[in-house]
Amino acid sequence: MHAVDEELGAILSRERRHLIPTYQRDYEWTEEGQWQLLMDDVLDVAERLTRARANAVASGRAASSGDPAVGPHFLGAIVLEGLPPRGAHVATCAVIDGQQRLTTVYLLLRGLLDVLIVHALEGRAKQVRKMILIREDDVAEPDEVFKLWPRRRDRDEWIAVMGDDPPPSDHPPSPSRTAA
C-alpha cells in the first residue's frame, strides 16, 4: 500500500468516483456526536482565515496573502484504494477509511451549492458542483454522476439529497430546491 498526503481540495477536484464498500458501517454521524464538532472546526478555521486576511489588507497586502498564516486543518485520514474504472472510464476507488467524514463533506458541499443557487452565484455554484458531480459526458448511467456513491441501502436517499431534482411532492420543498 502506498500512502500519500493530499489536501481535501485535491481529492474533491478529481474526476474520480468514491465507492463506499458494502462492508462499511452505515452513515451514523449525528449533530451532537460529530456534526457539531466538525462545524465548530470549520467555523474556527473560517474565523482565523478572516482575521489573517483582514491583517493582510490592513498591512497593505492582498487579502489572500494572509492565507498561509492559517495553515492547513487536519480533517482526519481518508484511505482510498484504486479500483478498475466503472462506467465510461471514470477513475474509481473504494473508501477504506474515512467514509463518515467524506460523506459529511459531500453533504456540506451540497448544502453550500443550494445556498449558492438561491443567491444566484453561478460562478461559485459551478465550482462546487464540480466537486460533488462528475461531468455527464464522462458517465454511462445517470447515477454515475455522483462522485461519492454510498452503500446500497443509502442510495435512494443519496440521489434525493445530492441531485438537483426537487424532492417528491409528498415532501415540502426546501427554499434551495425551488430556486434551482
How would you describe this protein?
There is one protein chain. The chain is 43% helix and 12% strand. Helix 3 runs antiparallel to helix 4. The chain has a 4-stranded mixed sheet. The protein has a domain of 122 residues. The C terminus is likely disordered. The radius of gyration is 18 Å and the shape is globular. With 180 residues, it is of the alpha/beta class.
Quick tags:
180 residues; alpha/beta; 4-stranded mixed β-sheet; 4 strands; globular; disordered C terminus
Strand content: 5-15%
Order of helices and strands: HEHEEHHEHH
Query: Segments where pLDDT lies below 50 for 5+ residues?
Result: 172-180
Share of helical residues:
40-55%
- Give a quick account of the main beta sheet: strands, pairing sense, barrel closure: 4 strands, mixed
What does the average pLDDT come to?
A: 86
From the spread of the alpha carbons, the general shape counts as globular
Please count the helical segments. 6
* Structural class designation: alpha/beta
Number of strands: 4
Strand order of the largest sheet: 2-3-1-4
Query: What is the straight-line distance between the termini?
Result: 43 Å
From the alpha carbons, calculate the radius of gyration and give it in angstroms. 18 Å
Brief account:
This protein has 180 residues and is α/β, with parallel strands linked by helices. The chain has 6 helices and 4 strands. Helix content is 43%, strand content 12%.
Protein topology:
Elements: H1 8-13, E1 16-19, H2 31-58, E2 79-86, E3 90-97, H3 99-118, H4 122-132, E4 148-149, H5 155-162, H6 175-178
Parallel strand pairs: 1-3, 1-4
Antiparallel strand pairs: 2-3
